Amino acid sequence: MSETIPVLRGADAHRVIDPKVYGNWTAALDMFDRLRRESPVVRVENDEFHDPFWLITRHEDVMRISKDNATFLNNPRPVVFSFRSAIEFAKAVTGSNMLVDSLVVFDAPIHMKYRRLTQEWFMPKNLKLIEAEIKALAKKTVDRLIEAGPEADFVQTVAAPYPLHVVMQILGVPEADEARMLFLTQQMFGGQDEDLNKSGRAEMTADQITQLVAGAVKSFEEYFAALAAEKRARPTQDVASVIANATVDGAPLNDRDMAGYYIIVASAGHDTTSASTAGAMHALAQDPEQFARLKADRSLLAGVVEEAIRWSTPVQHFMRTAAEDVEIAGQKIAKGDWLMLSYVAANHDDSVFADPRRFDAARSPNRHLAFGAGAHQCLGLHLARLEMRILFEELLDRIDAIELAGEPKRANSTFVGGLKTLPVRFQTTTG
Ligand code: HEM
């Protein structure tokens, strides 16, 4: 390998994929700032546990790669950073390198065929039809917060359960089964964090994490097979019925593809929005004046929501595979190479965002990449914004002031990350 290729090895390479680094946000941002400045396209070398990949940290490069879906594929290598043992395990179980096949791992032309099935359902015009239902869920959630007050953990009381209720409602999952869905999603996404994976183990090997995640996927598949049967027999207006009754090239979806579709909506739809909701409240609780301004002028809310999504960047990376030899920022990338798009780094690129660590609700334009870009750009982005707007309208109506009541803690996770606790103290408008 040529001397001119910037490479991270050993401890430096490990830090890029170390969940604990992401659990310490300042450390993660410092690391990405340094890399973006010194080597914006850097090769993270293999050790015995994972294949090498290129880490991309500049906004411009992450944007370009995301939009060029012909050159940068979501297959055949995993679309989320995975250890070799996890890939081998998935191959043994499913024959593919991911445990779940879904929209996010398909490329053209199949990807669009599947995306089209539900794309319309997630557009603002259709979401208007469920606004009243979301409002009712927001109201119930804020009732619960107020009952728990004047001090509560905002994540446990609001940010975690509310997006879960919304996504379960649109999937037609009965309320009685929600706790199980939460448990399984947290096992699947929070596999690296002992508080979230419910394993009771502080340190787990890559194999143990893989087993845990595989168990969660299997339980999801069983659950959704039964749900799909029900939605075929008695279709309703929800997205679960759309998926259960959809056809691709004239044939219904097979069980694995259908389960994959449910799993991506169920899982992508709540931990992400939980993280951005907690992020928004974190920013407001740290800055009571901002909360007061927002209470007085609701036209600022859209900016708060968008900035919270940038500032918290719930999905911290996705991976791509080069379909051909290509150059990025002067580095030669070979066909078949694996690339990590760091949305955290891109969203804190100071050539695009002035003072990027500052929460600035008036940021305009706010061209963040928290929802990705290109053909795979988040299917649920309108829903995520809508949920957050409705929740904060309800909170602003009923809460006069809010402040931090302790130190928030972030999850240790390289993929979907965010606060796992956010202690707040608040005054309600009546009390
Ligand atoms: C703030 C909340 C959210 C964030 C930050 C987020 C972020 C993302 C990102 C980064 C991607 C990949 C984009 C790319 O590869 O270019 C994605 C894809 C996706 N998201 Fe979201 N998401 C959020 C909420 C939601 C919600 C509420 C849903 C649905 C209920 C959802 C469903 C999906 C689906 C189905 C995909 C795969 C799309 C495809 O591959 O075509 N997301 N999301």
How do the strands and helices of this protein lay out in sequence?
Blueprint: E1 7-8, H1 10-16, H2 19-23, H3 25-38, E2 41-44, E3 53-56, H4 59-67, E4 72-73, H5 84-94, H6 110-119, H7 124-127, H8 131-148, E5 151-153, H9 154-159, H10 161-171, H11 178-189, H12 206-233, H13 239-244, E6 247-248, E7 251-252, H14 255-268, H15 271-286, H16 288-296, H17 301-312, E8 317-322, E9 326-328, E10 331-333, E11 338-342, H18 343-346, H19 381-398, E12 399-404, E13 409-410, E14 419-421, E15 423-428
Parallel strand pairs: 1-2, 3-11
Antiparallel strand pairs: 2-3, 4-8, 5-15, 6-7, 8-11, 9-10, 12-15, 13-14
This protein binds protoporphyrin IX containing FE (HEM).
Task: Characterize the structure shown.
The chain has 431 residues and is of the alpha+beta class. It has one domain: Cytochrome P450 (Cytochrome p450), CATH 1.10.630.10. It has helices at 10-16, 19-23, 25-38, 59-67, 84-94, 110-119, 124-127, 131-148, 154-159, 161-171, 178-189, 206-233, 239-244, 255-268, 271-286, 288-296, 301-312, 343-346, 381-398; strands at 7-8, 41-44, 53-56, 72-73, 151-153, 247-248, 251-252, 317-322, 326-328, 331-333, 338-342, 399-404, 409-410, 419-421, 423-428. The strands form five sheets. The protein has a six-stranded mixed sheet with strand order 1-2-3-11-8-4. It has a three-stranded antiparallel sheet with strand order 5-15-12. Helix 8 packs across helix 19 and helix 15 crosses helix 17 (301-312). It is globular, with a radius of gyration of 21 Å. Protoporphyrin IX containing FE binds next to helix 14, helix 15 and helix 19. The site of protoporphyrin IX containing FE has 29 residues, from helix 14, helix 15 and helix 19.
